[in-house]
Amino acid sequence: MKKAVVFLTLVLFLATSGLAMGGDVLKIATEGAYRPFNYVKPDGSLSGLDVEIARALAAEMGLDKDDYELVIQEWDGMIPGLLARKFDVIVASMSITDKRKEAVAFTEPYYYETGSFVAKEGADLEISKQGLKGKTVGVQTATTWARYLEGVYADVVDIKFYDSVQNHNLDLKAGRLDAVLATSFYMSSWLESEEGQGCEIVGEPVSNPNYIGEGVAIALRKGETELKEDLNAALDAIIADGTHKKIARKYFPVDIYPYEK
To answer: Can you give the residue range of the structural domain that contains 194?
Structure first.
């Protein structure tokens, strides 16, 4: 019964909201360049935690495959694209921050994260103002990690900004950076891959909520209250029935959400 009510509400929303497509299709944006959260497989299809969560939410809301569309959007154009109605929601590991809340609305979080500094093995790098003084650290632009570096280390560190995590990792491997900072889940996975060999996590996880926000959630335009309520109801449902945990465990050996509240 609950699912039927959510579906009916969404149908009414689709009929009245003027979606990005100009039709009754929910357009979902993700980056497609942030493995294992969202990435493009060799066959051209999208996969990853964000993508599977988006599909599970759509199914819980009663949407068929023809009722929604997953699209790729570069990270720094995410919020501008949403506001320009290029798409309707963002499911791309976007952290809730006060600055972003000025522009968009967020659902409840669907996972929580920390950040990790990564350097080459044997770099003997101390993560402190003294230890990082004069060092060059790479980070993806327009992220919470960029905000953290700018807020805490800008007076001592040369911060180099990149359009993707992959590109700053390539420069780290090439010796053009002393360290990089990105989400711990992503970097842990990268270090286990062939590309990450020869690098290691240094220092303690970054978890300062003043910079990294209140969790990772789905972003949507302000004022679209019914859609937000439907997404939250669907999220509650996939957490309660174990779908969320089943998806998450495909990508991570530890819980990324506090299932026992």
So the answer is: 115-212
Query: Directed axis angle between helix 49-60 and helix 243-251, to 10°?
Result: 170
Answer whether 0.85 is exceeded by the pTM.
Answer: no
- In this structure, are 150 and 171 located in the same domain? yes
The answer to the question of residue 98 being in a domain is yes
Supply the DSSP string of 32-92, one letter for each residue.
SEETTTEEE-TTS-EESHHHHHHHHHHHHTT--GGGEEEEE--GGGHHHHHHTTS-SEEEE
In a domain, 259, yes or no: no
- pLDDT at residue 5 greater than cutoff 60: no
Q: Name the 3-class secondary structure at 155.
A: coil
User: Residue 127 domain-assigned?
Assistant: yes
pLDDT at 261: 55
To which H or E segment does residue 158 belong? strand 158-162
Amino acid at 197: Q
pLDDT at site 212? 81
Q: Round to whole Å and give the CA distance between 205 and 214.
A: 16
Count of Cβ atoms closer than 10 Å to residue 238 Cβ: 19
Distances (CA, A) of 47 to 109, 188, 197, 247, 254: 20, 18, 24, 11, 20
Residue 180 structure tokens: 């990089």
Indicate if 119 and 40 belong to the same structural domain: no
